[in-house]
Design goal:
This protein is α/β, with parallel strands linked by helices and 400 residues long. The chain is built from 15 helices and 16 strands.
Length: 400
């Protein structure tokens, strides 16, 4: 079901939602409920400057500058294989999906530094692709082509890989951190066992169900349909499970870098459609820590939302808790049929007035050992002081 079609269903389902969307949602709201955050270690996040309307070569240069500032690539030996995980939820172009130009630049950089195989892959959302033990409906391959990624990725010298094409059995169970909200291990694609390293390349955007879709949430693209069903069905801890999904051994051992091209930002609705804002000066955001990366990426999303003026149905859909709750139930139905819908839990959408309102990050601080002290650094040229100051203030940790 297309998201615009979904909106037509909302009115008819509102009465059902008001009577049945009950459950414990406190765990997914606002600040940590049991006191203060724990302070983590100093963590650098590098920002590369991109002028509005920058050429493809200028964007590529900024991506390389950010990547090379964020990591020295000492982990990469000649002949190694690297998997690049983009955000490819649909066929919609950047910033609804990852920037093809940024991916191409990363592939070229990895090849230059000695990587043998560079593989780019994902499995798109349930609206478009569904994998079952019996087979597959839809195609991430076709969506990648429509989003403009395929040509760029292959021209840069990378392979492409789509998890559903390998079949139901081409997944393995990976276990999240002890004490997680997951009832089972997460079913991860077998290709990750074959590669030496992983680079995550999300987008900076709003999400109609969860508030935002950044680096931590990009992990959903790895998961098999049954893992996604548990994620959406047990919705009162969906935000916590988002953070915990990044604690599996594979990502802990192999993920080296998180990089987002954010010269365009999807400021409303999401993850597919919404208002695209192109700031006068865009950013490339890079860090070895996915949490520190997401702190800055979310601050950048919130900063750019100040420049847009949603109205009418877009404003309602962008902010409505009711729409998020009904939408999540529709996703449960698409993943597992309508029987699980009857027992599914209520989803509480992130309000996200500040980065400290995000339960995904709040829980990630717990499971990853504290709030990183974000140190912003410039990767290519001097960052505007007012922007650097603003983002620094938005990501500065203080106990409350």
């Amino acid at each position: 079901m297309e998201r615009r079609e979904f909106l037509k269903v909302v009115a008819g389902m509102s009465a059902i939602a008001l009577s049945s969307c009950s459950g414990d949602s406190a765990k997914s709201q606002g600040r940590l409920q049991d006191g203060t955050f724990t302070a983590g270690r100093d963590t650098e996040v590098f920002l590369a400057w991109v002028n509005h309307g920058a050429s493809e070569q200028e964007i590529k240069a900024a991506v390389c500058a950010a990547a090379e500032a964020a990591t020295d690539f000492s982990w990469l030996s000649k002949g190694d294989s690297v998997f690049i995980k983009p955000a490819l939820n649909s066929s919609y172009p950047y910033p609804a999906t990852t920037s093809p130009t940024a991916i191409g630049a990363m592939v070229e950089l990895l090849k230059k530094k000695g990587a043998d195989r560079v593989i780019v892959g994902d499995m798109s959302g349930i609206e478009h692709v569904k994998l079952t033990p019996q087979g597959v409906t839809g195609s991430t391959r076709r969506l990648m082509e429509a989003a403009g990624m395929t040509r760029v990725v292959q021209a840069a010298g990378a392979e492409i890989h789509f998890f559903e094409e390998a079949g139901w059995s081409a997944f393995y169970e990976d276990i999240p951190s002890i004490g997680s909200h997951w009832k089972r291990g997460l079913m991860m694609p077998a290709i990750l066992r074959e590669v030496d390293h992983i680079i995550l390349m999300p987008r900076c955007g709003r999400h109609v169900l969860t508030g935002s879709t950044l680096g931590l949430k990009a992990a959903v693209g790895y998961w098999r349909t049954d893992t996604r069903l548990e994620y959406h069905h047990d919705a009162h801890t969906l935000h916590e499970k988002t953070g915990e999904g990044n604690t599996v051994e594979t990502l802990g051992n192999k993920q080296r870098l998180v990089l987002t091209a954010a010269d365009k930002v999807l400021t409303t609705f999401g993850p597919d459609r919404g208002q695209v804002y192109e700031p006068e000066n865009g950013l490339i955001i890079a860090a070895e820590s996915v949490i520190a990366h997401d702190m800055v990426s979310l601050a950048w999303l919130l900063d750019n939302r100040h420049h847009i003026y949603p109205s009418g149905i877009d404003d309602f859909v962008d902010s409505s808790q009711l729409v998020a709750g009904i939408g999540n139930r529709l996703v449960v139905g698409q993943l597992g049929g309508w029987r699980p819908v009857l027992s599914s839990e209520r989803l509480t959408k992130n309000k996200l007035k500040t980065i400290w309102d995000d339960p995904v990050l709040n829980h990630a601080y717990r499971v990853f050992g504290g709030v990183p002290k974000v140190i912003l650094k410039t990767a290519n040229e001097t960052l505007r002081e007012d922007l650097k100051k603003r983002l620094s203030e938005m990501t500065a940790f203080s106990t409350v």
